[in-house]
Amino acid sequence: MTTRRKFISDTILGGAAVAISGSAMAMPAKSYRRIIGSNERIHVAIAGLGRRVGAYYEPIALKEANVELVYLCDVMRSQRENALKNVSQFINYTPKAENDIRKVIDDKNVDALINATPDHWHTPGSIMAMKGGKHVYVEKPSSHNMEENELIVAAAKKYDKVVQMGNQQRSSNHTIEVMKDIHSGAIGKPYKAVAFYVNSRGPVPVQKKAPSS
Q1: If you average pLDDT over residues 136-162, what whole number do you get?
Q2: d(C-alpha 27, C-alpha 170), whole Å
Q3: CB under 8 Å to 112, separation ≥6 — which residues?
Q4: Are the CB atoms for 131 and 125 separated by under 8 Å?
Q5: Residue 59 within a domain
Q6: pLDDT at 207 over 90
Q7: Residue 95 is part of which domain span?
């Protein structure tokens, strides 16, 4: 059986991310120029239409973003249908609905992939996209383990692609300001930090065996 590490490594070696939500429009000019000419539209696809997809609709619709949404991709039909319905409130055209990420990656018209798939697909999907000539914006966590982080970096260098991981909180204006104040000594020298997180999200459903195809 092929191991996860071998699958990802083979994906990188077989041939020889744009930020749309939160801080996506704050991409450095140098990186933006590497993606596409400033007078052309960036053609993007979103893979994974679950909990995070709603964060992309409004930024994609912004005129100054210069973005065209080409694909909405998910293996679940209900997710695709919901996404098409919801995004129609923000844009005046209809992106293609696709269930196979490989078809999206094979489309030469797609410049960048927003990888909002489940966590275990962040690294494999992102590397597949880079190998297919796409820049990548990948939701956090970017990897299943630390070694996979290195594989993503290696792929970005190998295929010369822009990749960004979605640490939106680190990119928010108020967080940047707070960090600047702390580094400037506003509270003296910090010795300890305590963080906690609460959420009303429901339990993760128990996995069920899917029918073979």
Answers
A1: 93
A2: 14
A3: 17, 18, 35, 42, 43, 44, 45, 134, 135, 136, 137, 162
A4: no
A5: yes
A6: no
A7: 4-167
